[in-house]
């Protein structure tokens, strides 16, 4: 049973690859290494392939055929919201075009199991801030829109040719399951704060006047190793004929504010953090948290890691990346 992991060399993908291998599956990675490096997946075959390129369908079909792939976990995508606003057409080519390649190739060779990486970005700015999978999908930027379209595409493929598919909507992913698999991207709160601390500068907080208990935004942080486990559970669940749902939020159900996160990072790193508070950012909802019940009830998934694990493992991996010379990936715009 060989599973193809697209984007398998990336931050989340490399964790998924290890979780699948731990679960006894053969894993093959497909990645163009545009935001990652081959060193993260040394133990597995890697096909370097840009899924958005014009000749990608035939090349991917050949890979699926060669390894007799039984399933695909499709994580490969671009994920920077600001860049997606600046270059929407490129984001659609990358994320929607890349998924089109995967679906065409899968159909051509009869590979009919697919787990799709979606995002909480599909919810946009939901009223009340606490969502379930039934909350209307209303993305507010091109990145979120590419994920919403992706969910429609995989669902339509299920109707058209029987693809067994599931979309996992990740909330705020952080932490590291292994020291060598930290998040190299300085794009989210955790790594942005660690980066500023390293530069001996004050981390920036966007707004402290939100209608939340301490005035800062509240988010739902999930440990990347727990997220990786959710992929194994979701993939296995595709074998069931009586599945009721094809969409799952991957979150803990627990909201953590920016101020709470800063306090946790201060405790773990031993730094006193005095943030610089600036104006709110456009499109940042005050609260974005999931009830995260469906994944528990249907797939028996439970997060094994709390906030301390998330922060502690992120810090260790950050230090380890610095020691091994991994360059941080910064926002393109
Ligand atoms: N990190 C998060 O908090 C988060 C939250 C929600 C959803 N997601 C989604 O999870 C997935 C993985 O994200 P990540 O955080 O690991 O990002 P990442 O940038 O570390 O990983 C993406 C991987 O895909 C590869 N890739 C990108 N474009 C490609 C292309 N055209 N062809 C082949 N490979 C390509 C990159 O080289 C990289 O290895 C993405 O789909 C992202 O949208 C991430």
TrEMBL record:
Pathway participation: Carbohydrate metabolism; galactose metabolism
Domain NAD-dependent epimerase/dehydratase: 3-242
Protein keywords: Carbohydrate metabolism, Isomerase, NAD
Enzyme class: isomerase
E.C. numbers: 5.1.3.2
Pfam families (UniProt xref): Epimerase (PF01370)
InterPro entries xref list: Epimerase_deHydtase (IPR001509), NAD(P)-bd_dom_sf (IPR036291), UDP_G4E (IPR005886)
Family: Belongs to the NAD(P)-dependent epimerase/dehydratase family.
Name recorded for this polypeptide: UDP-glucose 4-epimerase
Organism in which the protein naturally occurs: Cellulomonas rhizosphaerae
Lineage: Bacteria, Bacillati, Actinomycetota, Actinomycetes, Micrococcales
């Amino acid at each position: 049973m060989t599973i193809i992991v697209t984007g398998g060399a990336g931050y989340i993908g490399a964790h998924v690859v290890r979780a699948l291998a731990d679960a006894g599956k053969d894993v093959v990675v497909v990645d163009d290494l545009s935001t990652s490096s081959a060193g993260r997946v040394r133990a597995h075959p890697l096909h370097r392939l840009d899924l958005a390129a014009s000749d990608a369908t035939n090349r991917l079909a050949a890979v699926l055929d060669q390894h007799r792939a039984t399933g695909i976990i499709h994580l490969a995508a671009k994920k920077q919201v600001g860049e997606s606003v600046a270059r929407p057409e490129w984001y659609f080519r990358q994320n929607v075009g890349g998924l089109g390649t995967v679906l065409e190739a899968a159909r051509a060779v009869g590979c009919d199991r697919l787990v799709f990486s979606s995002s909480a970005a599909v919810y946009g700015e939901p009223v009340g801030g606490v969502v379930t999978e039934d909350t209307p999908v209303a993305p507010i930027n091109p990145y979120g829109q590419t994920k919403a379209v992706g969910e429609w595409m995989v669902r339509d493929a299920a109707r058209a040719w029987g693809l067994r598919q599931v979309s996992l909507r990740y909330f705020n992913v952080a932490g590291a399951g292994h020291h060598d698999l930290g998040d190299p991207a300085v794009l989210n709160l955790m790594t942005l704060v660690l980066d500023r601390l390293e530069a001996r500068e004050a981390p920036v907080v966007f707004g402290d006047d939100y209608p939340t208990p301490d005035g800062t935004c509240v988010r739902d942080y999930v440990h990347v190793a727990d997220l990786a486990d959710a992929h194994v559970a979701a993939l296995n669940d595709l074998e069931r004929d009586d599945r009721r749902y094809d969409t799952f939020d991957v979150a803990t159900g627990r909201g953590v504010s920016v101020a709470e996160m800063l306090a946790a990072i201060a405790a773990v790193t031993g730094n006193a953090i005095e943030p610089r508070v600036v104006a709110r950012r456009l499109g940042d909802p005050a609260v974005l948290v999931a009830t995260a019940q469906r994944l528990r009830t249907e797939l028996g998934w439970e997060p094994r890691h709390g906030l301390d694990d998330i922060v502690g493992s992120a810090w260790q991996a950050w230090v380890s990346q610095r020691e091994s010379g991994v360059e941080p990936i910064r926002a393109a715009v």
